[in-house]
Amino acid sequence: MKNDADPLIVQEVSPRDGLQIEPTWVETVDKIALIDQLSLAGFSRIEAGSFVSPKAIPALRDGEQVFQGITRRPGIIYVALIPNLKGAVRAVGSRADELNLVMSASQTHNLANMRMRCEASLVAFGDVVSFAADHPVRLNGSIATTFGCPFEGKVDEDRVLQLVDAYLALGIQGVTLADTTGMANPRQVERLVKRVLERVGAHDLTLHFHNTRGLGLCNVLAAYEAGARRFDAALGGLGGCPFAPGASGNICTEDLVNLCDEVGIHTGIDLPHLLRMSRQLPALLGHELPGQVAKAGRNCDLHPAPGYIATL
Amino acid sequence: MKNDADPLIVQEVSPRDGLQIEPTWVETVDKIALIDQLSLAGFSRIEAGSFVSPKAIPALRDGEQVFQGITRRPGIIYVALIPNLKGAVRAVGSRADELNLVMSASQTHNLANMRMRCEASLVAFGDVVSFAADHPVRLNGSIATTFGCPFEGKVDEDRVLQLVDAYLALGIQGVTLADTTGMANPRQVERLVKRVLERVGAHDLTLHFHNTRGLGLCNVLAAYEAGARRFDAALGGLGGCPFAPGASGNICTEDLVNLCDEVGIHTGIDLPHLLRMSRQLPALLGHELPGQVAKAGRNCDLHPAPGYIATL
């Protein structure tokens, strides 16, 4: 492990990718409270919601109210996921700082998720770019199924690079490589991150890993060692995948921050604050969460020795 | 990641470290069936039980019957955990191929777990070595809390190396570095494994990681890259830690084998066979298990695309 002087930037995505598949409705006021608490934890980026069809993602149908209700702290970029121009207009109207567009590397996944072919997604992104040019908003493009598709299997790495180039050609500066259903492995990550970093600066590249097959943090370390510096993660490991009932979702923010604290990679994030937040999630959502450190505590949270050892 | 031509050896420990804290009694016949099924999966080593006080570990009080009931397959080493000479006599009487002795690097943990000081443990091991010299049995020495102690916190690496030297001086050839409560991090693992490999050959060194804080597989990769080649793991991620209720236990065998398959490290283990076995554990034990791949499937287990995409 090298370059540990370089901070690792965590973009917290629990309010968006975390909550979007929760079956329990989370009240707008609770979403706002979650984001406001996250804003106090030291994050520089929070994906705070999405502006998609309320029919497609009913759990996030209150995007406007959430973005308008949060207390914005200076220096934090509040990101909104959008699927198209209509979403972009709503997000800009709600003062999102950054628009995160998404399409899949795999044609079948794009058809299933966006209900259009990849080519049509790129055309629609052109409209978003034109609109955004007239507004003070950043753009990021996510590539879902970068590391594998649950319908098609392996995804050609050259295909991913072509989409990166297409984003850059459109004028979309930030790029997220997303392991949507947790199919990435560390060797693949190392290889692809190195290739993408030849095109995109480390400050513009985000890695989005899911822990579906238990490899999320391994993939973070592999990407970090290959030069990546920004990672999505969700409090408690919120989120999930409709194809893996019971399996983990996003990599867990507090587990990632604990890893960084233990190996000496700076994140600027307050782990005890995160742990207090994470431990409140089961009451909010009605189920346990996959995060480990919230259950086990930090290494420095020592236990009292059993009394009987005094008599030995 | 280098040296991928070198196989990674998985020692399956679910029958011992996995079952020992299960609150549900597992019938002797079911333990034997579990081990016999594991013997068909491609493992070269299985920790099949322990010979400790039935009062201390009631879940494993049938060690003799288990070792006498299993169908031994040629080439597989069936290991027994033992705490002392009495356990060694029982294990050898039950034809265990290898005795795994255990003490802790931390004095407080050894007092809590073995009810004696570390010095007394080493004296007792001398008796086991003398006894074993007259029998066809291998010896391995485990060092619990190698990477941290839940009572004392950080463990001095020189202390661990002194215990490795003490084992070697006694004539104990195999050494296991055990992360008993999941406190290890990849950088620490890399550093310590390199130092221990100056004393112990890679074929005699085992790493035993728990996934208590989500870092188990990260630590395996760090150890593998530092030259370690043998790892303990438990089917389904069985096991656990009394200090971390709800947190994961041992690293999960099928998740580890899936990682190796994906990155191209040879294990010789039949992953589909393991997944079938793991998926039967919840019915046997009455609860879900932390393993991920048993829930998510392998990457190559593709899903049918939704029917509506044909109409788009």
TrEMBL record, chains A, B:
Q: Which residues cross the membrane?
A: none
* The keyword Metal-binding is assigned to this record: yes
- A single Gene Ontology molecular function, please? oxidoreductase activity
Biological processes, Gene Ontology terms: ketone body biosynthetic process; L-leucine catabolic process
What Pfam family is a match, any one? Answer: HMGL-like
Q: What family does the entry list? A: Belongs to the HMG-CoA lyase family.
Family annotation (InterPro entries)? ADH_Zn_CS, Aldolase_TIM, HMGL, PYR_CT
Q: Which UniProt keywords apply?
A: Lyase, Metal-binding
* UniProt protein name: Hydroxymethylglutaryl-CoA lyase
- Its Enzyme Commission number(s) read 4.1.3.4
